[in-house]
Amino acid sequence: MNSYDSDRLLESIKDTHEQVVSPEMADVIVFNTCHIREKAAEKIYSELGKIKKIKKINLDTKLIITGCVAQAEGRAMIKRQPIIDAVIGPQMYHKFKNVIDQLKHKKVMELDFQSNEKFKALQNKRSIFNRSAFVTIQEGCDKFCSFCVVPFTRGAESSRKVNDIYNEVEYLVENGCKEVVLLGQNVNAYHGLNYKNEEVNLARLISTIEKIEDLKRITYTTSHPNDMHEELIQLHGSSDKLNPYLHLPVQSGSDKILKLMNRKYNKKLYLQIIDKLRKKCPDIALSSDFIVGYPEETKKDFQETIKLIKEVEFAQAYSFKYSSRLGTKSSRNNSNNICDQEKNERLQKLQEILNHQQKSYNNKFLLKNLKVLVKGKAKKKNQYRGITKWMQVVNFEISREVNSFENIKIIKSSNNSLLGEVQ
Ligand code: SAH
Ligand code: SF4
């Protein structure tokens, strides 16, 4: 979502500003930050050291911090780092241009939660175009999982209107976009208003935007198991455009830990959802998030998570060491914290299994011909990078001009990507 927000911020000042290639050349430097885990949040402070040097030479350069670190630590941040000229929380981005104008005279803090105002101010006509585009449809969260800062930094759950999303996607597609990734912290809790002012769910929204002819692929992320409603599961079986991919974070396989986390589902329910999904869409690629070393997680609880992973077999997954976040319920639970070494060991064990699963999943695609959506140049010279509908990265070489979609024969597979030849 920060990637989407960064584009939106840039687009909102495109009449007066342009992007430069290095911070030394900039009048305004913006750090769009993430507060979800401690590591992400601390990164910003180490980066600020570099900016301090630039500001010493370029006296008029202004520094703005946006994103969830700004929201959570705004006031304290300016105290800790006086080189910061403004902090803007995620629900105040409609004020971005305004803030830049005010910076000549004073420091500015915009930390309110005006998501409706922000959504209203978003122009549906974008100016940054890619073949695959993020589109935020929902923001914030009311679930209050015990470990999570999102409800405090992104605010209450709110959904954009169907028409606004449709118009944004249509305009992107008119400008070459072939795939949209619908975004929300809790995306399948989407409940935006349609043109009749009736609330519609995510399945209905997807059914509406898939009518845009030249839009070929749709994905959504991130979902909560409890909002994985029947209509959405059905759609995975019936829609030609919905990618056979789902990121459905489970966090833990232990019912005790899930309860402590306030996730409001148990392992059985999660497995039932996976089962239903696989019945509707047998080739669905499943992804998840895991937290290891949650307070009170015993070795037995951890083994439950490993068991769940083995039962489901994920195509890919993200896993994290538990990180205590100020203001959350679990940050106040100091009773049975797991030491860092134990957390590291559990994470390593878990990742070994997940990596193995990802590799076996990718191996199944060897020698297959896949339709790949070309995203752009790859890191290696002469190579392009694309994505399958199961959301695997594919690298390939091509000596002619690339099309939006290329038929690629997979000749090598690894954990994180596939290598192919153009057919
Ligand atoms: N809304 C999604 C998750 C959004 S946060 C859901 O409900 O599943 C993205 C991921 O970051 C989470 O799934 C979780 O695995 C991880 N995460 C969030 N807070 C964390 C914390 N305090 N420590 C470690 N990982 C965390
Ligand atoms: Fe955070 Fe997701 Fe829980 Fe909401 S549902 S509080 S975003 S982990």
Describe what you observe in this structure:
With 423 residues, this protein is an alpha/beta fold. The protein folds into three domains: 23-114, 3-Layer(aba) Sandwich (Rossmann fold), CATH 3.40.50; 116-363, pyruvate-formate lyase- activating enzyme, CATH 3.80.30.20; 369-422, OB fold (Dihydrolipoamide Acetyltransferase, E2P) (Beta Barrel). It is built from 13 helices and 19 strands. A hairpin with a 5-residue loop joins β15 (369-377) and β16. α9 runs parallel beside α11 (267-280) and α12 runs parallel beside α13.
Class derived from helix and strand content: alpha/beta
Q: What ions, cofactors and ligands are bound?
A: S-adenosyl-L-homocysteine, iron/sulfur cluster
What is the level-2 CATH architecture name of the largest domain?
A: Alpha-Beta Horseshoe
Report low-confidence residues grouped into runs of 5 or more: none
Shape: globular
Q: Give the neighbour order of strands across the main sheet.
A: 15-16-17-19-18
Radius of gyration: 22 Å
Q: Kindly identify the CATH topology of the largest domain.
A: pyruvate-formate lyase- activating enzyme
Give the strand content.
15-25%
How much helix, percentage-wise, in residues?
A: 25-40%
Distance between the termini: 34 Å
Tally of domains: 3
Please outline the major beta sheet: 5 strands, mixed, barrel
Top CATH class of the largest domain? Alpha Beta
- How many extended strands? 19
Mean pLDDT: 95
